[in-house]
TrEMBL record:
This is DUF4832 domain-containing protein. It comes from Anaerocolumna xylanovorans DSM 12503.
Amino acid sequence: MSVKKVIAFTLTVSLIIGICFINYSSNVVSASTAGHTAHTISTGTSFDTNPLRGFLPFDYSTTTFPHSLEWFYIPVRDVQTGINTFDWTVLESRLNAIAGRGHQAVFRFYYDYPGLSTGVPQFLIDGGLIMRYYNEPSNLGGAGYCPDYENQTFRTSMQNFIKAFGTKYDGDSRIGYITLGLLGFWGEWHNWPYDEDTSDGKANWNISTTVYTEVLTTFDTYFNKTQLCVREPKPGVPNASANIGYHDDSFGNATLSAASGGQTWSFVQKLINLNQQNKWMTNCVGGEIYPSDQGTIFSGTTWQGSTNQSWSACLSEAHPTWMICDQIKSYTGNTLANAKAAAKQMGYDLQVATAYYDNLSTSDPLYLGINMKNIGIAPFYYDHTMWPVQVGVKQNGTLVKSWTTTWDLNTIPADGSVKTFEYTVSSPGLAAGTYNMCIKVLNPLANGNKLGFANAGQNTDGWLDLGSFTVGGTVTPTPTPGSITIDGNSSDWSNIPGIATASGQSATSLKATNDSNYIYICVQGSNLGTNSQIYINSDNNSSTGYLEGTWSNSGCDCLIELGKLYSCPDNSNTWSWTDLGTSNVMVSANSSVYEARIARSAISNLSNTFCIGFKDVNSSWSTVSRLPVSGSLASYTLK
C-alpha cells in the first residue's frame, strides 16, 4: 500500500474511532512533553499567500491579488501522439512558467471543451473514432464534438495516458492539485443536456459506469502523492475507496444540500446521496466560484451567489481548500478587501499552541515538543515526503542549525484539537550562548510561497520563532524586577548584549531586556538628541501598525516619544498615534544614554518575539541616526 493511501486510511480510522496518533520520527524520543519547559506561543495571523489554498486565477492572468496557485485547462491531444506515445513539452512549458512565479499549478486535461477545438488526439480521429457534433447556445458553451467514450480503442488510449501521466508527474513539486477531467463536457463528468432525459429531443450520450470506474481507479493507482479531485461521485463507482476528493465547479450557485436550501442535484447533495460528505477530512475539495457570480459575490455586506447560497454556508458544508476565481484580477475597493478575507477562510490554517524545550548544557541533547492545531476548515493534505517540517536554531537572527523531521501535517484534523509532535537531536553541536528555537514548513518549490503559521512569531523567511533558550552557563540571566534602574546611567547594562550596533554615528548601541513586569530598552552613544524615539513592532507583524519607511519589517504598534507611550493600530505610513500617557512608561535621557521602561501589561498584542528601533532626533525634529541603521528592526525575544 502506498504512503499516501496508508496515511489516508490511518486518518480516516482515527477520525472514526476518536484516536489521536502521535507521529515520531526516527530521531524522536517518546518521552512526554510534561518533562520539559512549556512555552506558550502567541497567536497571530498567517500569510495571505500561504501555499496550496485560496483563490486561483487562470495562468495567463496578471494580478496582484494574493495567491499561491494558478489554474489551466489542457487538451489531451497536446501531449498524446499515439496509442502509447507522448510528448510532454506543452505541459512542461505551462508548469515551468507557473513554478517560475513561485506558485503551484492546478489543472485538468480534457477531450471535449464546448466552444473550443477538440482535445481528442488526431490518431484516434484518423482511426475512425465516432465524434458526435453538438451546437448549444453560448451560455451552454457553444459547439463541439463529443467522442464515443465507450469505444475500446479510445478507452485503452485513455488508460495509457493516465498511466503515463501518473508515472511521470505524481509527486511533482510544481503541481498542487489535479482534477481528473477527461470525461464529459469541460472534463466535468457529464454530457448534459445529452443525457437520459431525451424528452428535449437530444440524444442520450451518458457515459457508462464502467468507463467512469476505469478512469477513477486508474488515476487512483498511478497517483499516490499528488492530491486528486473529481467533479462528483457517481452511482456504482468505488467513490469511497478511491483516494480522491471532489471539486464543485458551480460553487455558491449549486453547492448547498437540499436541507440547507440548495437544489436536489447540488454538489453537496450528491455527496450526501453517496455518503461522501465527509471525504474532505482526508481528500481535498476544490472547485470554481460560479463564473456568472464571480464579479458580484463579494461586492456586498452579505457574500452570496445569485441563488442566495451564502459564502459562509457553502464553506461550512463543502470545506473547500481552493477555488478558481479569475475575476480576482478585476476586484477593487470593498470587493477586493472582502475577497482577500474570503480567500483566507478556505483550507488549512496551522497554529502552534505550545512549544516544549529547555536550557541546555553543551553536552545535552536538544528536545522540541510542539502542540499544533489546525484552526482552518480543511486539513493540510500533504505529508512530510513532499512538505517536510524543519526544526531550526537561530542566533542573533541567523540560522545556525536545522534538522528535517518526519512530522506529517496531514495528520492534524481541522477541528482545532491539539496534535503533539516531538523531535530530539542527540548531539546538536551548539556552543555556549543564547539561541532561538524555530520551526519551518519547506515548500518543495525552492522559490515557492512561504507557509506561515497563525502565530505572532512568524517571520517572513518562513521560520516561526518559538522563543529563546541557552546553551552552557555564560548567558546573562533574566533580570529580577528592579535590577535595571531608569536613571540615565548604563552601568547596570554592562552584561546585557546589544541587539543592534553601529559606529561613526550618534547612536551606537541598542539593548533590551525584560523581567516579569517590564520591558527595558537602553541606547548608548554620544550627542543624542532631545526628541529621540523608540519604535516597537510589538506583535512582530508588519501588516499592522505604522509603516516607517527605512525599516523593512516596521509595522510599529507602539512609540515612545517625549516620555509618553503611543499606539498605532493602522497599517499605513500616516503619522497618526493614540496618546496612552505616561503611567506605563518611564524614560531617562541625556546626551550619552537613553533608557526606557514599559509595562508589559500596557501592550495588548505583545508577542514572545518582537522588534525594536531607535531614532536619534534633534531639537529641530530631524533624524540624526538610527539603530538599526537600515534593513529590519532589531529582534528581541522575551526571557
